[in-house]
Amino acid sequence: MNESQVTVVGNVATPVDFRTSAAGVPTVRFRLASTVRRYDQKSGGWADAFTNFYTVWAWRALAANLASSVTVGEPLVVTGQLRIRQTERDGRQYVSAELTASAVGHDLSRGTSAFVRVAPARPGLTGAPSSNGGAGRGSSGAVAGAGVEASVPRQGAAP
């Protein structure tokens, strides 16, 4: 792979939009806001300068894991291929930045996280078919990666 990889640190700005393509490939899309902060000598503190917004795309297992792990406002570190797109609509020029993510994680400099490894479903291991015919589900009937958030206590949540 000869394409450049970039890393962007920011906050999730929109809900994660999970979809499955016609070919059955999971995909997600969300917006990531990355605000530049500068030290203001006059006030003696840090101040927000401007915010860049990126549309983040993810596919396959990363998409499924993002959909069950990320919510609006959470700080993330996203690594992937950056694409700058220029379009024209109604006589106006628009520029957008898109990231095709190869790796995403919570920004642990701003909080804690608990990792839960997701094991892929292996049909036939239990000997009993699932109630839905096994379409993307393990023998328990749960979608791989779904419900992980429920088993991992969120920071500040009551036990």
UniProtKB/TrEMBL annotation:
Molecular functions (GO terms): DNA binding
Superkingdom, taxonomy of origin: Bacteria
Compositionally biased intervals (Low complexity): 140-152
Region (Disordered): 122-159
A Pfam family recorded for this sequence: SSB
Gene3D superfamilies per UniProt: Nucleic acid-binding proteins
Keywords: DNA-binding
PROSITE patterns documented for this protein: SSB
InterPro entries membership: NA-bd_OB-fold, Primosome_PriB/ssb
Keyword flag Manganese: no
The protein's name: Single-stranded DNA-binding protein
Organism encoding this protein: Streptomyces ovatisporus
